[in-house]
């Protein structure tokens, strides 16, 4: 069942000449984990905005094509209605705090207050979110006193409390240290097991390869490829799009080590065979 | 030649928590990476080197000058620091003016400053944008402007604070090239980093910070071979090192070429 | 990173009073100091505020605030004491300059009004949590957006201070001097203004996006997470305050 349908999406920011999104068409099934890769300026963030209605309702600009999230057509719906279907978390944890709430629990409540959810239901959902994001022990702390990783998890919790079907994350670990990054990916994995559809734009290629069901490759606003991680990262021309494949893939390509099941190059550590290598004569002669 | 000497350095912001405790370090011309989780004291350490903070106890010598004797603005002649966020820094409306700000401040003439600025912009690949408004350029390009701003000051020590944050593949490759070129030109390059593969590829020496102390300090290869100690500092080995292990090799590899060469030459000898 | 509010956490009777009553107190207290412009009445109002501050265990927190306005008070005394239009009766001389009774008298009134205003506001600000005040106002019908703006400004100021710190570090790092005479310090402001403003604008825009996607502009009635607090004697206090105001107006008209 398709939770997201995009048909011929085109978009240009106000006062610019170039199309930020150029004729995108694709579907995403419920429960999938989608990774979006591409160089800076490829259109990853813009696509994230387009799936939540920020494009075009917040950013204005020239818009064409159709985007459906569940049964809502983005162009014809309010951002607040869309937010119940698709939530967005972005790079800077700090600027996602409302600034008007004094505790973590109140911060999560903000979205629910805006949507007029009744108090008992609010409390249930807040507790759910606190547990899911593993921030129950800090629920009375001031949001601005948290670490980067904790603040980002709070941002996710605040969005999840609105029970969207889809969670979109735009480079959520960019500003976090390795531990914070690990926390966010663990949480997202948990959410995916709960059935939430995840769409994540990221530069951390090895992580994307590890978690994604399918990977979308964008370049200059166009959709270049949308397939399994192995298929996308095994492409010969991937560097032309400013994307470096996972290190595992780079090594395996040179040594001609393939995944026995798919005959494509491994993209995660687990897919790299644990045994002693036997390299073909061809590989050796290529190197000499 | 000791460019930087740190003796018994301790630092805290005033309340009881010690951010750094009894550090003793020396830096020569080796490219050096500083790694560790957030809160371990890396940024504080680097600010102390720059004279932006004063040690609570102990001393830091930059080119044999004690940092306690010069204000940060004067130390800027000897040691440069590239900050994380270009938006925290850029305020001129022309790229060339922004890059000339530093050298002019530390006493170079208008002519010299312009010369150094143009040279620096060349190194970072922005020679074509000299007269443009920095805010008309992309975030990546603005990042390069901040790098050029520090290079133009002709310091012989340059520190980068998490330069790879938010960078895509091309941005990172450019940074690698810049750092290698600087090292080739005799500068001491120090960088705080979270990208272990970047560290493994570029840096000769790696220092691991953990809870305000130095946990490990040595050549990059030996540091990355100690899996358990790294885990203790919440760090992983570079991916390329992990692959080497997975394939059954005992060696600690620092880049793809090394691993491939090794695998191929082993095959030939069998 | 704590927020920048003047609220002092204590367990007193005044803390338990409903914020709207306290707001009403401030308004009426200031109004009376104008409606009945005699020194004794205004002094009385000041005394009442001070008593409330003492009961609220926050009296010593108002002193620095009054201290800051001492300069203003002093200038009032000097200006009025010397130059009040109805100056006839000399009161005393100081270093050859004559101060007149009428002027000093008027100055005293103005000074008491200032202190009265500060103390009354003190009763409100020092004993009321900002979010409680705003939430109560929203429940009474104030626009939630206005309330949000007010509260976020309070929380954002400490963050701006931190950003200022980062920006100053970056510019000092490039040789900009910040210590020295006034001229050096003024020159040091220019490289700071641009980045501070731009950072705030960027931050504001990102925050606006975050709010939008959490339903900030949703139409319909909003609900509240924090339970309605029960304030003792809410109605009695408000009634009493309004009564005082009416009495004052009556006195004025009757005069």
TrEMBL record, chain C:
Annotated keywords: Cell membrane, Membrane, Transmembrane, Transmembrane helix
Membrane spanning stretches: 23-55, 62-83, 103-126, 235-254
Recorded GO CC terms: plasma membrane
Topology in membrane: Multi-pass membrane protein
One Pfam short name: CbiQ
Keyword Transmembrane helix: yes
Subcellular location: Membrane
Transmembrane helix keyword on record: yes
Protein's recorded name: Cobalt ABC transporter permease
Species of the source: Heyndrickxia camelliae
Classification lineage: Bacteria, Bacillati, Bacillota, Bacilli, Bacillales
């Amino acid at each position: 069942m398709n939770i997201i349908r995009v048909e011929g999406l085109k978009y240009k920011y106000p006062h610019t000449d170039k199309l930020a999104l150029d004729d995108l068409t694709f579907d995403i099934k419920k429960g999938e984990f989608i990774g979006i890769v591409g160089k800076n300026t490829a259109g990853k963030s813009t696509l994230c905005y387009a799936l939540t209605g920020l494009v075009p309702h917040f950013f204005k600009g020239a818009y064409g094509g159709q985007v459906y999230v569940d049964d809502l057509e983005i162009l014809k719906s309010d951002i607040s209605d869309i937010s119940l279907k698709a939530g967005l978390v972005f790079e800077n944890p700090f600027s996602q705090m409302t600034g008007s709430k004094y505790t973590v629990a109140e911060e999560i409540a903000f979205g629910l207050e805006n949507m007029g959810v009744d108090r008992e239901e609010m409390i249930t959902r807040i507790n759910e979110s606190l547990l899911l994001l593993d921030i129950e022990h800090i629920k009375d702390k001031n949001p601005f006193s948290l670490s980067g990783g904790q603040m980002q998890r709070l941002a996710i919790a605040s969005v999840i409390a609105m029970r969207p079907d889809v969670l979109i994350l735009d480079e959520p670990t960019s500003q976090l240290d390795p531990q914070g990054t690990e926390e966010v990916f663990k949480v997202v994995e948990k959410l995916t097991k709960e059935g939430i559809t995840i769409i994540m734009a990221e530069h951390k290629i090895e992580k994307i390869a590890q978690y994604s069901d399918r990977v979308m490759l964008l370049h200059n606003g166009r959709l270049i490829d949308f397939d399994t991680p192995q298929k996308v990262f095994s492409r010969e021309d991937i560097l032309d799009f400013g994307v470096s494949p996972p290190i595992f893939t780079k090594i395996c390509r040179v040594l001609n080590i393939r995944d026995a099941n798919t005959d494509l190059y491994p993209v995660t550590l687990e897919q790299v065979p644990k045994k002693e290598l036997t390299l073909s004569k061809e590989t050796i002669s290529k190197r000499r | 030649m000791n460019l930087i000497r740190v003796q018994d350095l301790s630092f805290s912001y005033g309340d009881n928590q010690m951010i750094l405790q009894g550090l003793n370090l020396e830096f020569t011309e080796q490219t050096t990476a500083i790694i560790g989780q957030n809160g371990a004291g890396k940024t504080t350490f680097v600010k102390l080197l720059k004279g932006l903070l004063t040690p609570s106890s102990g001393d830091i010598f930059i080119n044999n000058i004690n940092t306690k004797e010069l204000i940060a603005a004067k130390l800027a002649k000897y040691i440069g620091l590239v900050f994380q966020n270009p938006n925290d820094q850029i305020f001129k409306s022309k790229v060339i003016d922004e890059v000339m700000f530093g050298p002019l401040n530390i006493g170079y003439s208008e002519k010299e400053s312009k010369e150094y600025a143009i040279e620096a912009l060349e190194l970072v690949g922005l020679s074509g944008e000299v007269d443009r408004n920095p805010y008309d350029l992309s975030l990546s390009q603005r990042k390069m402007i901040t790098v050029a701003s520090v290079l133009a000051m002709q310091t012989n020590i340059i520190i980068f604070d998490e330069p790879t944050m938010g960078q895509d593949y091309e941005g990172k490759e450019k940074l690698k090239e810049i750092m290698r070129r600087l090292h080739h030109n005799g500068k001491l390059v120090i960088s705080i980093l979270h990208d272990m593969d970047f560290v493994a590829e570029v840096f000769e020496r790696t220092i691991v910070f953990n809870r305000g102390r130095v946990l490990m300090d040595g050549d990059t290869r030996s540091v990355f071979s100690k899996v358990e100690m790294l885990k203790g500092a919440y760090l992983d080995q570079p991916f390329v090192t992990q692959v080497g292990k997975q394939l059954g090799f005992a060696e600690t590899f620092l880049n793809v070429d090394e691993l491939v060469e090794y695998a191929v030459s082993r095959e030939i000898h069998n | 990173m704590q927020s920048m509010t003047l609220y002092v956490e204590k367990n007193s009777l005044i803390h338990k009073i409903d914020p709207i009553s306290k707001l009403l107190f401030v308004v009426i207290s200031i109004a009376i100091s104008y409606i009945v412009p005699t020194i004794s009445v205004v002094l009385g109002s000041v005394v009442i505020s001070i008593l409330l501050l003492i009961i609220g265990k926050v009296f010593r927190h108002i002193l620095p605030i009054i201290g800051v306005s001492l300069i203003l008070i002093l200038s009032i005394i000097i200006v009025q004491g010397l130059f009040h239009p109805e100056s006839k009766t000399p009161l005393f001389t100081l270093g050859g300059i004559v101060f007149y009774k009428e002027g000093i008298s008027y100055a005293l009134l103005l000074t008491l009004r200032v202190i009265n205003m500060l103390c009354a506001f003190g009763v409100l600000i020092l004993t009321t949590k900002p979010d409680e005040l705003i939430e109560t106002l929203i429940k009474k019908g104030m626009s939630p957006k206005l309330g949000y703006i007010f509260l976020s400004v309070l929380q954002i100021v400490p963050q701006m201070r931190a950003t200022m710190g980062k920006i100053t570090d970056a510019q000092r790092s490039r040789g900009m001097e910040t210590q020295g005479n006034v001229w050096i310090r003024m020159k040091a402001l220019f490289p700071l203004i641009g980045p501070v403003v731009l950072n705030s604008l960027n931050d504001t825009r990102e925050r606006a996006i975050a709010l939008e996607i959490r339903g900030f502009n949703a139409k319909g009635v909003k609900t509240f997470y924090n339970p309605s607090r029960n304030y003792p004697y809410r109605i009695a206090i408000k009634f009493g305050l309004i009564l005082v105001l009416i009495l004052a107006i009556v006195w004025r008209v009757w005069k």
